Amino acid sequence: MKLSVVLASCLAGLSAAIAIPKGTSIATIQIPNQNDLRVYYQDNNNYIVESSVGLPTNKAIGAYIIYTGGPRKRTPLASLSYNNSGRVEVN
Questions:
Q1: In whole angstroms, what is the distance from residue 79 CA to residue 32 CA?
Q2: Beta strands 80-82 and 88-90, pairing class
Q3: From CA 20, how far away is CA 30, in angstroms rounded?
Q4: Residue 70 is inside which H or E element, if any?
Q5: Which of 38, 44, 53, 62 has the most other CB atoms within 10 Å of its CB?
Q6: Residue-wise pLDDT tens digits, 67-87
Q7: pTM of this prediction?
Q8: Where are the beta strands (DSSP E) in 15-87?
Q9: pLDDT, tens only, 31-48
């Protein structure tokens, strides 16, 4: 996935605002036509969490647990998104 320069700069702010554990995989989705980047990762309790960040001037929105089932440690994460031409991309 190719991130815009604006959203790529948000990753550093997001990782500073939200404690993403070392060694975990993350998946990112850029919401088309919006300055919104969603980051999915596994926290220390093995829950899958979604965090969202907009422009670099915005604060990161809190982390929300989206899956509390029984994931194993270090669950591999991937994301699918649509590009501007309507094609699906695996991230």
A1: 14
A2: antiparallel
A3: 18
A4: none
A5: 53
A6: 666 667 777 777 666 666 666
A7: 0.60
A8: 26-30, 37-42, 48-53, 61-67, 80-82
A9: 767 777 778 888 888 888
Pull the structure tokens for residue 25. Answer: 């995989």
- Nearest-angstrom CA–CA distance, 39 and 49: 8
Residue 49 CB neighbour total at 10 angstroms: 20
Three-state DSSP class for residue 43 = coil
Find out whether 55 and 61 touch, Cβ atoms under 8 Å: no
Nearest 5°: phi and psi at 25? Answer: -90, 155
* Whether 61 contacts 38, CB under 8 Å: no
d(CA 65, CA 38): 13
